[in-house]
Amino acid sequence: MPHILIVDDDENACAALAEIVAIEGFSSATAGNLREARLQIGWRMPDAVLADLRLPDGSGMELFAEVSSAGVEVILTTGYASVESAVEALRMGATDYLVKPINVTRLQAVLKRIATTGELKAEIHSLRGELRRYGRFGRLLGSSEAMQAVYDQLSKVGPTEATVLLIGESGTGKELAAQTVHELSSRRRQPFLAVNCGAISPTLIESEMFGHERGSFTGADRQHKGYFERADAGTLFLDEITEMPLELQVKLLRVLETGTFMRVGTNRECHADVRVLAATNRNPEEAVAEGKLRADLYHRLNVFPIELPPLRVRGDDVVQIANTMLEQLNGEQGTQRRFASNVLESLRMHAWPGNVRELRNFVQRAYILADQDIITEVQIPLQVAATPSPGTAVVSVPVGMSLADADRQLIFATLEQCAGVKKHAAEILGISLKTLYNRLEDYAAKGELPEWLRASRNGDNSSPAA
To answer: Sites of the modification 4-aspartylphosphate (predicted)?
Structure first.
């Protein structure tokens, strides 16, 4: 039987919570302060801790240090809620943050999720093993270092209830990352709804989000459930959050803090147990400065930010993704088409301003136009880096510049574009990794390395095999 430790200086609150957790199949112990809580933890390590934020001898958050190494989940409760305390609690690893008087339905939902933690951890371990073998993680694909870092973040935040802010260019897979977070969570058997905030009319977005009552406005001939009600017990993904009207951002903040909202046309509060994930293709801090995103909402959403890398810095992931997409088309149509080696090389060289979405369109177009099983560049030409994408470096070579100087500038710009990953830069430049290292050693000896590259070399003492 799973065991929960209840920490609250109010004896009546402890008794009521103990009764609720017993109904959900937990055994429990109670403590009135931090000292008693630590003693209880010493006697028996709980599966979860339900602790008041304010205790006579300190803060409930101090218990993180006692149980975090054992993977124990911590739910904090408080009668003095604020955005700052909620964000801090979730940043430190709280599973949830409940405002007093505690909503029993929401607490029961949290307890049900905790009861499935063992099964969830086994699934995560299986997913990570699959990643190591095949370069896959949930709905995402790729083996590059940049994506490995993303997978690590997703695996850590997925099982929690933390709000996640996904940041990345259009087409980098933010919705797939959100779906992966959902599938890693205990909500995975509940609804996952994705909403593009920029695709809904500003006059209808409040009704779409929170629903409306019959007769609340012209044309409202029936009651309508909004996204929050339809996603109850599941996950709601708000894409392009900076496109949401500011007046609605205030109401969204209230839902995130209290779990309650009102349909258009009524003053009756509704409750929804929803985990919110958000995404933007803009720099969120710039969006705040420009008045597109409320600062308080940004801080509430930015509990666990994850940046999705653009395709141009993901090295051989381009080839892996393209081949996987082509295999899917082959499976659907019963064909055996494949890319010629020169096409795969062109895919590596392309800047992909549209990221994975652009690559998907290319693969579909190549498949349709192919007249034979081997797809060649003659059949489907791909202009390499024809249009620089935002953030892509452009090297200007004035007439009269020496080839050596032009060569040096191109190498530096390519390395910067590849975030210093020398193997990827060498592939794009069409030279061996050893040749690239030799060039960099020569530039270093002449004092020609830019400052950012000198700093990166200080932590990179590796060299290619001779």
So the answer is: 52
CB neighbourhood size of 132 (10 A): 12
Other CB atoms within a 10 A radius of the CB of residue 286 amount to 11
Name every residue whose Cβ is closer than 8 Å to that of residue 239 and which is 6 or more positions away in sequence: 174, 175, 194, 195, 196, 197, 198, 278, 279
Angle between helices 355-369 and 317-333 (to 10 degrees): 40
pLDDT tens across 280-335, in order? 999 999 999 999 999 999 999 999 999 999 998 898 899 999 999 999 999 999 99
User: 33 CB contacts (<8 Å, ≥6 apart)?
Assistant: 7, 9, 55, 56, 57, 58
Would the pTM count as exceeding 0.70? no
CB-CB contact of 3 with 33 (8 Å): no
3-class SS at 121? Answer: helix
**Tokens encoding 163:** 């709000």
Report pLDDT for 172.
94
**pLDDT at residue 130, rounded to an integer:** 53
CA distance 18 to 5: 9
**CA 368 – CA 212 distance, rounded (Å):** 45
The residues, ordered by sequence, that sit 6+ positions from 440 with a Cβ below 8 Å of its Cβ are 411, 449, 453, 457
How far is the C-alpha of 120 from the C-alpha of 112, rounded, in Å?
12
In order of their start, the domains of the chain are: 3-115 (3.40.50.2300), 119-307 (3.40.50.300), 311-375 (1.10.8.60), 403-458 (1.10.10)
Q: Which of 215, 223, 217 is nearest to 203 (CA)?
A: 217
pLDDT at position 28 is: 92
**pLDDT for the residue 103:** 85
What gap in Å lies between CA 313 and CA 308, rounded to an integer?
11
Q: Given the structure tokens 């369109």, which residue do they identify? A: 361
Q: Which two tokens stand for residue 98?
A: 């409940």
Determine the Cα angle at 418 with ends 414 and 420, to 5°. Answer: 95
Phi first, then psi: give them for residue 196, nearest 5 degrees.
-90, 105
